[in-house]
């Protein structure tokens, strides 16, 4: 079953390297699951499913070895811990570029499955440290990793924003939760030549483009390397969400007031295949989130006024909920994106400044400043002559 599962993930992610594929074939996901929660649309609630890691049922195995995330903890009726969708985990591991002997810090332990995959990749000479703020999660994850043969993974109960200086410095730091900012502790604990892979929230909760972030002399730089969506981090890094998951759901409740044309050159969308359309939609959504805190890959959402969202199953349409004037504002943002050359994620360069820094990042036609809790992020269009150093 593990081999068939690896083939499915490989087809969807896709898995590009032998190291990631080998890890997916070696780590048995079912040994790291004792229960999960199925969501029932009709009841709008979760039902717990118990699993025996040593003798799981056929139904449990079918779910565990599907390309689906598994919710494994609830808090107040909402997910508070999970194991990521395997295709997303594979995509992130490819971007992490792990090698034997490296030291890795993971923020968000989940079930320990991702830590086990990484331990396979860094080998006996490498070290994986995974941190979770929930003590019951840590106790279970530590026990399951030990039982699955990955007792060398160091599982620590701590606020992830603090990192783990005693096991550093780290060649790689990865977060498997949505982060409203990067922690200064992570930057301090990063080794020379290392980098972070952070689902860095831009726009509403759950829109977390993957950012590769590194230190260059006195600068903290980054670039976007993929798409992701996670539940939000807890602890010191957490912030009050301007547009939470619940706010977004309420904004699109009911029947759309109107279905209107997607205000971009529609032909290049409707004539392309699904993967290309998704890439274009993500490129536009990323710009929406950079230029306007209401924007994401879904479109534009405003708590009090409604939403203007990409229509499901229709490449050249948007649905409008609530205030119709949102469509006019959406049109203006789309026109700005096209005026800039319809940039994809590879066109953006990131730089981070400490909030208490005297340096004031510039704003302009091709630059945006995003204030965060500990940093100020400068997002600008990459000049054609400038090459990334990491």
Question: Could you describe the 3D structure shown?
Answer:
The structure is a single chain. The protein is 29% helix and 28% strand. It has a ten-stranded mixed sheet. A five-stranded antiparallel sheet has the order 12-16-15-14-13, sandwiched between helices. The mean pLDDT is 89. It starts with a helix and ends in a 9-residue tail after the last strand. The protein is globular, with a radius of gyration of 21 Å. The longest helix has 18 residues, at 274-291. With 390 residues, it is of the alpha+beta class. Among the domains are: 2-176, Rossmann fold, CATH 3.40.50.150; 245-339, no CATH class. The chain has helices at residues 2-12, 18-26, 58-64, 86-96, 113-122, 135-148, 184-189, 245-251, 267-270, 274-291, 325-339; strands spanning 35-40, 45-50, 70-75, 78-83, 103-107, 127-132, 154-157, 170-175, 190-199, 210-216, 219-226, 258-261, 295-296, 299-302, 306-310, 317-322, 348-354, 367-371, 375-381.
Tell me the Rg in angstroms.
21 Å
State the end-to-end distance.
37 Å
Strand content: 25-35%
Mean pLDDT: 89
CATH class of the domain at 2-176: Alpha Beta
Largest sheet: 10 strands, mixed
- Along the chain, the helix and strand elements come as HHEEHEEHEHEHEEHEEEHEHHEEEEHEEE
What shape does the CA trace take? globular
Label the structural class. Answer: alpha+beta
CATH architecture classification name of the domain at 2-176: 3-Layer(aba) Sandwich
- CATH topology-level name of the domain at 2-176: Rossmann fold
Uncertain stretches of 5 or more adjacent residues:
none
CATH superfamily of the domain at 2-176: Vaccinia Virus protein VP39
* Strand adjacency order, main sheet: 7-6-5-8-9-10-11-17-19-18
How many strands in all?
19
Estimate the helix proportion, in percent.
25-40%
**Total DSSP helices:** 11
């Amino acid at each position: 079953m593990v081999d068939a599962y690896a083939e499915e993930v490989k087809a969807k992610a896709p898995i590009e390297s032998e190291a990631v594929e080998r890890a997916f074939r070696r780590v048995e996901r079912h040994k790291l699951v004792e229960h999960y929660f199925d969501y029932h649309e009709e009841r709008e609630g979760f039902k717990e499913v118990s699993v025996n890691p040593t003798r799981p049922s056929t139904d449990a195995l079918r779910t565990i070895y599907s390309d689906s995330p598994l919710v494994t903890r609830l808090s107040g009726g909402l997910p508070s811990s999970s194991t990521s969708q395997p295709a997303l985990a594979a995509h992130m591991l490819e971007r992490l570029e792990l090698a034997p002997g490296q030291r890795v810090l993971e923020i968000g332990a989940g079930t320990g499955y991702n830590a086990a995959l990484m331990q396979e990749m860094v080998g006996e000479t490498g070290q994986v440290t995974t941190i979770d703020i929930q003590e019951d999660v840590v106790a279970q994850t530590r026990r399951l990793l030990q039982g699955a043969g990955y007792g060398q993974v160091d599982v620590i109960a701590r606020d992830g924003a603090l990192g783990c200086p005693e096991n550093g410095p780290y060649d790689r730091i990865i977060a498997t939760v949505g982060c409203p900012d990067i922690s200064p502790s992570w930057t301090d604990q990063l080794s020379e030549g290392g980098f972070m892979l952070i689902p860095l929230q831009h726009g509403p909760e759950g829109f977390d483009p993957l950012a590769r972030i590194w230190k260059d002399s006195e600068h903290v730089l980054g670039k976007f390397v993929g798409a992701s969506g996670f539940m939000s981090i807890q602890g010191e890094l957490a912030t009050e969400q301007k547009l939470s998951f619940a706010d977004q759901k309420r904004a699109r409740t009911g029947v759309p007031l109107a279905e209107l044309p997607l205000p971009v050159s529609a032909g290049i969308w409707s004539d392309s295949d699904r993967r290309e359309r998704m890439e274009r939609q993500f490129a536009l959504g990323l710009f929406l989130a950079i230029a306007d805190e209401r924007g994401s890959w879904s479109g534009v959402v405003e708590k009090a006024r409604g939403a203007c969202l990409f229509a499901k199953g229709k490449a050249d349409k948007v649905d409008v909920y609530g205030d119709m004037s949102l469509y006019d504002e959406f049109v203006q943002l789309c026109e700005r994106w096209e005026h800039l050359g319809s940039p994809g994620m590879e066109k953006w360069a990131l730089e981070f400044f400490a909030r208490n820094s005297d340096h004031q990042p510039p704003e302009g036609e091709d630059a945006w400043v995003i204030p965060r809790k500990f940093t100020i992020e400068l997002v600008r269009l990459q000049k054609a002559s400038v090459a990334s150093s990491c």
